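Batch manifest line 379
LIGAND: iron/sulfur cluster
JOB: complex structure
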Amino acid sequence: MAAVTPARARVAGADEFTVGTEFHRALDDGRIECTVCPRACRLRDGQRGLCFVRARAGDQIVLTSYGRSSGFCIDPIEKKPLNHFLPGTPVLSFGTAGCNLACRFCQNWDISKSREIDTLSSSASPLALAEKAKSLGCKSIAFTYNDPTIFLEYAADCADAAREAGLKAVAVSAGYINPAARAELYAHMDAANIDLKAFSEEFYKKITFSSLAKVLDTLEYLVHETEVWTEITTLLIPGHNDSDAEIAAECEWIAGHLGTGVPLHFTAFHPDFKMRDVPPTPPQTLRRAREIAIGAGLRYVYAGNVHDTANQTTYCPDCGEALVVRDWYRIDRYALSDTGQCAFCGARVPGVFEGPAGDWGPRRQPIRIAAPSHKHQEP
Ligand code: SF4
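JOB STATUS: finished
ARTIFACT:
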């Protein structure tokens, strides 16, 4: 069995899950700065960055989680969420550990906040992963559960292997990444869902310890400077980012800066991590947000994490017919041509449509990928 890191330079004295990276620079005071994300961690030898998986080793910053995962699942692509990208198809999904944000409301905190590398109990080479995805009928692989920004070298190699196998690659990210690393990561991706967590710098600073401006910059980059199919998700947290004014400002910015055809998903918050005192998002809030978004001119706006067919359906931009009727992750009606045209009037719906819709349904199926032989091998 091949090692997990065949294409990357190994780091002397480190295990095979550790690879060198390009994105760092030496500082005058002897520290080395990681330049992947605006966090700009400045590290002395042996220290780890805030994301935990990048660390300083000698005169460089290394990635310590190449080829390691918190587990693999096959999901419906609608779960990423992506509603305009190969609808109904299965996607092999995985993440690693750690995150470069520190959101108090994190919905994946067991993975993203993990400081235990042992959380990464699964491992796979990019080739093994792509072969497994193809053999199971997946049309794409997705880097999700935590942010591929922090493991971009592994994500890029897996995406390349996927493309060689005829599959596509999907990044689910908060978009908090510097321009050079961003160009490298997204050169390998076919689609992205970017979390736009709120529309105020105050929220971003206090609740996520990051910056809204950097995320907006990533969205403009993806939509205007790449071919990456991009959708946006905003998790609405009662009392924190769900006012009419804030939602309207977000939607007007999207319409004005990205265009009215970029899909927007409003999803429901469930009390978790450090925000257990906040109630779950009422379905009415999702419906209200969607109405505001439609009022701002956005054409494809979805309510997520709930059963709400009327607000999860894709409507024709010209004739208004219900074209893709969804109940949560299940497609109940599909009236698009193989290239994404309305079956009633022929208008084109923006997105990536290659053939008929898939029939994966709402299932979530954990899978195992044969581990390579090394000292961390699974029993
Ligand atoms: S990627 Fe990780 S180590 Fe690098 S700057 Fe961001 S949080 Fe720090």
